[in-house]
Amino acid sequence: MSLVAHIPDPEQLSALMAGLSAFSAVVVVSWPYVFRNTLAERMKKVEGERERIRQRERARLEAGKSKVSLRVEPKRLFQAIVDRFNLAKQAEDGEIVRKLSMAGYRGHAPVTTFLAVRLIAPVAIFIAALLYLLIIVRPEAPLILVVAMAAGIGSFGYFAPAIFIKNRITKRQQAIRRSWPEALDLLLITVESGMGIESAFRKVGEEIGAQSPEIAEEVLLTTAELSYLQDRRQAFENLGQRTGVEGVRAVVTSLIQAEKYGTPLGQALRVMAQENRDMRMSEAEKRAAALPPKLTVPMIIFFLPVLFAVIITPAAIQIMSM
User: Do 108 and 75 form a contact (C-beta atoms < 8 A)?
Assistant: First the structure.
């Protein structure tokens, strides 16, 4: 009798099942409204933030580009000095223009400024050195010797602009070497995706600008030259001459060969990207290996005297007290 009493009534069982079914249906229908899936919203926010960052970086690059133009007119003072002393003939050989372009200065205005500053700097430094010696130092030496010393100091002004340009070239080449493998990877992806070389260069210039403005500038300038130069080989050669980097020249050679013979470019770009990456690593290892010899002289000059003083001073004090 007890077992029979615990058996549920079929009507109650069916009512219970119907209630559970109704409750499950209500939960299923109301679940998306009560517990919203925020994954899609988060993905949409991330995508929007990524697009905003990209637009901001592109706007920053465009603002930087607007400050640089090949049609900037030189200052009237510099132009008057160049015209008065007929200094324009010094730039006819193209060596000054080539070095300025390697430093990132292009157009007529940087050439005029360089020639004028190279003429003005010795005079300005001579006058400043002469006034410093006569007014502040006041040496006992004769006036002719003081003037000769000021002239020797002023002669440095003639070489100062060239030293500055050389320093700019070195820093620019280092920046290009540091990011050139990544630019080659982007170029490889765009070429293998089916883009033409002009579209690939344009895409690389737009995407690499946030990491390396120097490479972006050179690549976009090459894209412009490819669009209007009759000989596309000249545009590639100009890229190698403007940068002066061996890795860029190797890529230029491969591009010229692919343009001339129709050879596949993807494998060559992949190999050269790896080679440039290995060169960058070997250069870093070389600098790390050269660090201990460079630290030897400072340690001898600054560390050893202090060490000797710490070791010898107590013994000297004890000897003096005895």
Answer: no
Q: How far, in Å, are 70, 86, 98, 116, 236 from residue 83 at the CA level?
A: 20, 5, 21, 10, 34
Ranges 38-47, 89-98, 196-205, 287-296: which has the least confidence: 38-47
DSSP SS3 for 78: helix
Confidence category of residue 161, pLDDT binned at 50, 70, 90: very high
What one-letter code names the amino acid at 227? S
b/e map 259-293, b = 16+ CB within 10 Å: beeeeebeebbeebbeebbeebeeeeeeeeeeeee
Q: State the DSSP string of 170-210.
A: HHHHHHHHHHHHHHHHHHHHHHHTT--HHHHHHHHHHHSTT
Residue 121: exposure state from Cβ atoms within 10 A (0-12, 13-18, ≥19): middle
The label of the residue with tokens 């890795």 reads: 247
pLDDT tens digits along 185-197: 999 999 888 888 8
| Residue 130: closest CA among 161, 155, 153 | 153
